[in-house]
Amino acid sequence: MTSGQLFLGVDGGGTGCRAALADETGRILGEGRGGPANVVSDPDMALASVLEAASGAMTAAQEGRDLTRLTAVLGLAGANVVEAAAAFRARLPFASSRVENDVVVAVKGALGADDGIVAAIGTGAVYGVQRAGTVRLAGGWGLILGDHGSGGWMGRGLFEAALLAHDGFVEKTPLLAAILREMGSPDAIVAFARRATPADFARAAPRILDAGDDAAAQRILGAADAGIARALDHLESDGALPIVFTGGLGPLFAARLGHRYPSLIHLAKGCALDGALALARGLV
């Protein structure tokens, strides 16, 4: 068991969270995983997921189960809502803890101390701009009011398009016909949508990506491109900055939008866990 100080970094989003435990030198001692971690849409599940991931990292490192030993930085979906982040932090067992939006730790991991923009596109969509070490967030307001271009947004758009096709307002493409057939009825789609989380909607996004030249899929992807490009154009308006795409859909949109931002799209220096641990250790 390590006698020195232990640092925990957590990266949590709409589909799951990861934790890494490090010693004072930055050496990774163990990693763990947990379920979804959005402090706005389901703070109780987020807490359970964080504790599961943290405990898993401690177990993997053979450091026991005492979470009160840890200095922790958590990057969690929804933590840009200040009140929700503060309420969540008050429930944590760690010796010292800091709760940031998941894109903040993604920015620190992807850029280190450099200036740039991180577009985190996964279940949700949020952007971080770093200038002189200060991170400013944009977007990330959730599926009901935002998240344009995200997996959740595209999945929701697919079900919306299926209903429009049922009513005859748009063409019933093979993809939309398949969705209607599989769901059974328009009423079943409405019932699903009423209880669905962003992650539930996001699970339908691969259907769009796998649909080839299906007109409905292409419309949804084109609208996603436009929403992400609109955000990046605005964030670049104060001067050109390198752009790093992260998240499960990051590589997809880096490729789709590469022609629009020639020479500006870069690979990440590290991952969100790297950023969370760097913040925990006071390095960035």
CATH class of the largest domain: Alpha Beta
What is the correct CATH architecture of the largest domain? 2-Layer Sandwich
Quaternary structure of the protein: single chain
CATH topology of the largest domain: Nucleotidyltransferase, domain 5
Sequence stretches where pLDDT stays below 50 over 5 or more residues: none
- The tally of helices reads 11
What coarse outline follows from CA principal-axis ratios?
Answer: globular
Proportion of helical residues = 40-55%
Largest sheet descriptor: 5 strands, mixed
| Rg | 20 Å
Number of strands: 9
Characteristics of this structure?
globular; 11 helices; four-stranded mixed sheet; five-stranded mixed sheet; Nucleotidyltransferase, domain 5; 284 residues; single chain; alpha/beta; 9 strands
Walk me through the structure.
This protein has 284 residues and is an alpha/beta fold. It folds into 2 domains: 6-113 and 269-280, ATPase, nucleotide binding domain (Nucleotidyltransferase, domain 5, 2-Layer Sandwich); 115-267, Nucleotidyltransferase, domain 5 (2-Layer Sandwich), CATH 3.30.420. The protein has helices at 43-60, 82-89, 102-111, 151-166, 174-183, 186-195, 198-202, 205-209, 215-235, 250-256, 272-280, and strands at 6-12, 17-22, 28-34, 70-76, 96-101, 116-121, 125-131, 134-139, 243-246. A 5-stranded mixed beta sheet has the order 3-2-1-4-5, with helices on both faces. A hairpin with a 2-residue loop joins strand 7 (125-131) and strand 8. Helix 3 (102-111) packs across helix 11, helix 4 crosses helix 5 and helix 4 packs across helix 9 (215-235).
